[in-house]
Amino acid sequence: MKRYYLWLVAAILCITVRQAAAQPCPVNGTTVTNESCAGANNGAATILINAPGNYTYTWQPNVSSTNSAANLPDGSYSVTVSAGGSASGSAVTLFSDNFNNGTGNWTLNTGVGTNQWFVDANYTGATCYFFGFEVFTVPDVPTQPAAVTGYPYSNYLHIRATSSGGGLCDPPWPPLNANYDADQASTQCTEMNLPVSTAGYGNVALKFFWLGVGSGNSYGYVQYSTGGGWTSVGGNFSGNAGWQQANITNAAFDNQPSLRYRFCWTNGDTGNDPAFAVDQVSITAQPIVPGCTSVVSFTIQPGATVNPAFTTLAATYCSNSADVALNPATPGGTFTGSGISGSIFSPRNITTFGTPVTITYTVTQSGCTATSSQTVVVYEEPDAAFTQLNPTYYTTDPPVVLTPVTPGGTFSSACTASNVFIPSLATPGVPCQISYTVTQNGCTATTSQDVLVNTCCATGTAAELRILLQGAYSAPLGAMTTTLRNSNRLPLAQPYNNLPWNYTGSENAPTFDAIPANATDWVLIEARSATDPNTLLDRRAGFVLNNGVVVSANGTTGITFGTIPAGSYYLVVRHRNHLAVMSSVPVALPNTGNPYDFTLSAAKAFGTGQTVQLSTNIWAMRAGDLNANGIVTFADVNAFISQILSGNTASNYFLPDVTHDGNVNFTDFTTLQPNVSVIGITPVRY
Fold this sequence. Notes:
The chain is mostly beta strands. The chain has four helices and 48 strands. Strands 6, 7, 9, 12, 14, 17 and 19 form a seven-stranded antiparallel sheet that branches. Strands 39, 40, 41, 43, 44 and 45 form a six-stranded antiparallel sheet that branches. A five-stranded antiparallel sheet has the order 8-13-18-15-16, with no helix packed on it. The longest helix has 13 residues, at 634-646. It is elongated, with a radius of gyration of 60 Å. The protein starts with a helix and ends in a 14-residue tail after the last helix.
């Protein structure tokens, strides 16, 4: 009957406790801050909880893991608030045994060895005598504390020896509280008969009173099982001669359908008594309070919308494209980017071609700022320039091949055939316009030149003049040097067929010996309109002799203009490295026998300071305009320096050789340096 009662109690304890379903979490609402401006992504939200606890927050979209989130874009959100169950409340005793009713709840000695577990109330020790001689004494077990039911000497569970130990001690031996060490090792356990269910409980604790002196090799220990093998918990129990309470907890004890414990003793070769003793065993726990789950949904409203759109631009523009007025959808903002002035995009102001340019409009309205951008590419207008033609030609002049700076275009004119200007096709006395049109990267440019073709006169119009070059003049000699001619360094053909002159005349000397013996250098003579000196009418190249007289390529005095009739013209003299000059008055041509002499005074040249005085009544063109642009600047000095740095400075026809000795050296610099900053008059400047 007694065993049936114990089984019934154990069965009741093994019934699984059903946990209550999860409840809603104590959510007290949500505070929401909407987005301030469209696209600002600065919304915020906080989930309010009115009870403390360890809550988990799962956001969709996943923007936070706490109860609040910031920097949110507009849109819909949901947050799952949850908390797991926890043990709380008053402790419940699931099992207790004070051993006063015997061993009904336990199975003793499931191990091996002469040391075994007993349940009794024997506390008395004894003394070991060997043939009447005292060897050692086993002390009494201390009395139980008041917290033990039936103290001071009630039943308790303890380990003791069952062997006399080979008869060392005189009978009667051993006492009922002694363990045996020496060579008889033993490991004995006492196990709970039936498991306890801790389902629905947490903070499960195994409590018991214990004592045990033992040693490092002889000690008690506790193990638990949840249905499989046994696991040690709580450490070793030894070194304690008086009663004390143990309280062992472990998460593995919680919420188990089947939990058992056992007390074990192991002994080595040494150890003191009393051995491991246990009393007042209990298993306590706290009910698990169910968790909670709530879902909170809310919306972040979009902020104020500002439309920053503006006039749709083309993908590409040309540098000569018209300005584009930019009209924004929302006025009051600011345009920025290359080529922008106010609200005008000017392709002509772009300096980086073929590279994307970003135009941005930024506008603020009601405290909200929005920006939009467009990207365009501006291509440079192609250079439609082509071979520089003379203002006038004769119908008998040879054809001129027209070479464009940018190939691939088309020439059009009544006096051209493809890219060849043919004077004989023109109507004499009627201006003929020649145009060149070229397209590149979708950009088109056109350049036109007007030429006047006349019926050829029999002789042409002669011009005689005299000019001196400052750099080539020698005061002691009273003349200019002829070193370049004497050393065969003067070119056989006129040297003005390149930039900036672009003169296409065919003047030349067939051999070096054909060059006039006293020639100093080539010069280019121009005839300009008497009413507008900016209008070039004709030009011819010839030599300037060392006495300043200008002769034709064959050495005859003066030069002959082939496209202008007799009349008055301004005369311009150009040289490759001296500042060009123009006559101060129109000169009546032909002037055979009455040359126009620039060397007589400064007044012979148009403008102020255009010539330099070499000696009394001797004036000359200023040295140093190395790039022939009509101004002497440090750019000309840099050209001189570049020649020096190149190392090519001797025995040649050098542009920086203003002294005309065939070499570039410091003498050239000292000659041109005083003329830096002298500016030629407008008609002679390129």
